[in-house]
Amino acid sequence: MPKLRIAEVTRSIFYAPQYVAIEKGFFKDEGLEVELTTTWGGDKTMTALLSDGTDIALVGSETSIYVYAQGANDPVINFASLAQTDGTFLVSREKNDNFSWEQLKGKTFLGQRKGGMPQMVGEFVLKKNGINPQSDLKLIQNVDFANISSAFASGTGDFVQLFEPTASLFEQEGVGYIVASFGNESGQLPYTTFMAKESYINENEEIIEKFTRAIYNAQKWVASSSTKEISKAIHSYFEDTELEVIEIVVDRYKNQGSFASNPLISEENWNHLQHIMAESGELPKKIHYKTLVDNKFAKKVMNE
Question: Where is the SsuA/THI5-like domain positioned along the sequence (predicted)?
Fold first, then answer.
């Protein structure tokens, strides 16, 4: 087997099963040698995939829709689910034991970058809870992803939408307090999936099958293992984060069902993703489920 190149959109505890697959030898069991690169951003990840700079990308499914809508001759196909909810949390500057979404009205909300999936989910959840993002609060969306947490820490915003482990670290430091989960509020969707170009999948079906089996074995291991065991297994990927914080984050993601329990991508979740994109005005056109999702490998390894 050749070395398999994987590009992940960011380095996140959200992707714990992927790191488990490496650390626990599930890829090695399949005869696969993997090379993991963090490409930091959906646009860069997709560019790497389309230019053959990587074989497999771990990124939000919305990127495959954007590529297809632009008329790609070799579409990008989603073949295995990894994270099945949004991974962000609503953090309040003030401690609040009786939070309600109404409390955001008239306040300043520091959201995620416009056009990204976290921002789309954020606006979807606000609307679901009776908040008009454009008129009921002051919405800030022009801060670069890498600077959102520092902007909030320096005094910008009454509320902020943050990924882990920053949200938990802010709680520990008294900078802010988690009051709601966007993942719980928005429901299941193919938030982050493994995908590859259609031509690569067709030419390397054995590799894709082995890869999917390794991910499924890691997903089963995560589902049956304790928070401490999972955190210890992935700690080397987050050396700057204390094990105690990783445990808090893993527990939070595990309890809200963020880690997909199997690689299957359901049609219901796919349609929900497009509904959220349409609500935010970011869906270029509706793409049929079977056009960009191939569950063949997931079904095979799950039925073994």
Answer: 16-223
